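Before the break, one more example. Copy the sequence into your notebook; we will annotate it together after we see the structure.
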Amino acid sequence: MAATDTAETKTVAKKKAVKTVKTAKVAKASKVAEIQKLRIRVRAYESKVLDSSVKQIVDTARRYEATILGPIPLPTEIKRYTVNRSAFIYKDAREQFEMRVHKRLIDIVNPNAKLIEALTNLSLPSGVDIDVKMA
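Here is what the structure looks like once it is written out:
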């Protein structure tokens, strides 16, 4: 009789352990789901204008006490174009032009509604392109 009691208590203990592991996994998954991230990609042709607008965004986020990751400088995209100088005879004479697109990435963790509203009302200089995504 004592052997069956210990076997029953072991199976009950195993079932309780399995339940606690399952609830811990569910709780961990819900914590991961609660974290939201606002990912802002800023692009511009001039690096000084880009840095000033990024500073404006970061200052606005800090005013609302948000957790900020960045600004992270991304690789500069360089587009090069080669054009003939003359239309007909001087084939070897060419001009080369390039366009540089500077990029920065800013992550804001768990933004609140006031911060998002402040960022949408933010006026930035022309020539600055902004992509905002919720991740």
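The helical segments are 2-34, 47-63, 113-120. The chain is about 45% helix and 35% strand. Try to locate both features in your own notes.
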